Amino acid sequence: GAVVSQHPSWVICKSGTSVKIECRSLDFQATTMFWYRQFPKQSLMLMATSNEGSKATYEQGVEKDKFLINHASLTLSTLTVTSAHPEDSSFYICSAFSGNQETQYFGPGTRLLVL
Amino acid sequence: GNSVTQMEGPVTLSEEAFLTINCTYTATGYPSLFWYVQYPGEGLQLLLKATKADDKGSNKGFEATYRKETTSFHLEKGSVQVSDSAVYFCALLKSAGGTSYGKLTFGQGTILTVHP
User: Fold this and answer.
1) Per DSSP, what are the bridge partners of residue B85?
2) Separation of first and last alpha carbons in chain B
3) Are B46 and A105 a contacting pair at CB < 8 A?
4) Which of B30, B42, B95 would you mutate first to test chain A, the one with the most A CBs within 10 A?
5) Less crowded by CB within 10 Å, the N or C end of chain A?
6) How big is the A-B interface in CB pairs under 8 Å?
7) Is pLDDT of A4 > 90?
8) In percent, how much of chain A has pLDDT > 70?
9) What confidence tier does A72 reach under pLDDT thresholds 50, 70, 90?
10) Cα(B47)–Cα(A28) distance, rounded to whole angstroms?
11) pLDDT of residue A31
């Protein structure tokens, strides 16, 4: 149980295009999901907290107009990187919070490369 | 605020050696504590957790005990395998109530390499 999926796992795009990443909790409902960014050999950096049915809460320094988050249902959150640039290339990881288990469960991550 | 401090890495061990990765925390209230493992190119997997003082979390031969008196949650394994090579993260979940419930505070991660 407690499986979180992400799609796509890999994406390569041209500079200036937008990319959408989906995060799904497959066997539980999550009112709260989280989006992280991870640079090589570093810990996770929390970007934003996604709450079902309401606006996301962004961490300081994260541009909300660039990283659009939508949490339309209890099992799906999406992160859209708008007008992507090479410096947005990174490993993006989502997690879903299970209130019953009081635990965050993580997706497998999405590697984004912007050319 | 909350914080988690892990021992500096990287840690390099031979197969069947004993493993300890230290983790200490600072928090108000009664947080839950977690160890997550990240294999190369993958997301984080929950390894074990403990929700209250003196609880012991265990999984796949790994153990950690929630020590409130020393604010620690050290990860141990009696005999490591090559397949245990990964990055290990200690994390804290603040106690329920208030804003930011569900948000994790992570340590910096410890890289473990096990040689045959």
Assistant:
1) none
2) 41
3) yes
4) B42
5) N
6) 54
7) yes
8) 99
9) confident
10) 19
11) 86
Least confident of A18-22, B74-78, B102-106: B102-106
Residues 16-75 of chain B with CB under 8 A from chain A are 32, 34, 36, 41-46, 49, 51
Query: Looking at beta carbons, which residues of chain A come within 8 Å of B104?
Result: 34, 95, 104
Could A43 and B89 be called an inter-chain contact, meaning their C-beta atoms sit closer than 8 Å?
A: yes
**Rounded-to-integer distance, Cα A34 and Cα A48, Å:** 6
| Cβ contacts of B112 on chain A, cutoff 8 Å | none
CB–CB contact A107 B106 (8 Å): no
| Ordered DSSP codes for B37-80 | EE-TTS-EEEEEEE-STT-EEEETTEEEE-BTTTTB--EEESS-
Residues of chain B contacting A107 with CB distance shorter than 8 Å = 43
Distance in angstroms (rounded) separating the CA atoms of residues A4 and A109:
10
B100: confidence class by pLDDT, cuts 50, 70, 90 = low
Tell me the C-alpha to C-alpha distance, in Å, between residue A46 and each of A20, A59, B44, B49: 18, 7, 14, 21
pLDDT at B20: 97
What is residue B102's predicted lDDT score, i.e. its pLDDT? 86
Radius of gyration of chain A (CA): 13
Rounded Cα–Cα distance for residues B104 and B89 (Å):
11
